[in-house]
Specification:
By secondary structure, the protein is of the alpha/beta class. The protein is built from eight helices and ten strands.
Amino acid sequence: MTKKIIACIDGSSSSAAVCDAAAWLSGSVSSPISLLHVIDKEGYVTESNLTGAIGLGSREHLLEELVELDAKRSKLAMQQGKLMLEAAAQRVEGDGATVSEVRQRHGQLVDTLGELDAEVAILVMGREGAEATKHPNSHIGSHLEHVIRTMQHPVLVALPPFTKPSKVVIALDGSETSKKMLTMLNQNSLLDGLKCHLVTVGEQLDDTELATYTQQFVKRGIAHKVQRLEGEVVDALLDYVAQEGIEMIAMGAYGQSRIRQFILGSTTTKLIGESPVPLLILR
């Protein structure tokens, strides 16, 4: 089965960035793009509790009307989703990439992605979900956290406007996750043409370990720079991103060290929420 770039479209302000990021990934790793829109019923149904408020006959009549209204909302949600997918396909094609398929599903996003697990190469999601319009102070979509916690595939977290990266920070800590991340990155052409900044914070890696990682990039002829930072992990990384004009961060997820405290700890939540550039999260 051909592995695909799965671009999750939800109509949020990040959707255009998701399309642009998916188009870039597709060209970089030569994988087809599948656009996915999942209709979550909870997103369009208004809760109503009629218990004890009205008489039996009236309640039955209103319940019938609510069922009809629910069906109308579902139909409208499908139509809206189709329009979003059409616009997304046009955006991707405008970026010079090709959409191999367009999908619309009902249910939970994580469940749907689980069903598609065998064909996923990389997931692309926006940092701010569709709920950001209702909760402007929310910087991380609720679905994004759930997906990264449960899925075993790389996730590119896109934020607008997406710019094709030329420089990427690869955050290293010597863990198995770091090793797996480097193996994945070196097994495809994603890093071709990029300048890679291999960065560690504090004393998580000694100079010998850093040199070992560097050899992988020397062998492939990939432009790179090695840097050891000091201070608090998130602030150190974000300061480095600003100073060096970095356009993407790649890092491993989960673990016990500070740089791998992902979602469950405040460190990575802060990094995702405050990063001015997209993040490629690998497990």
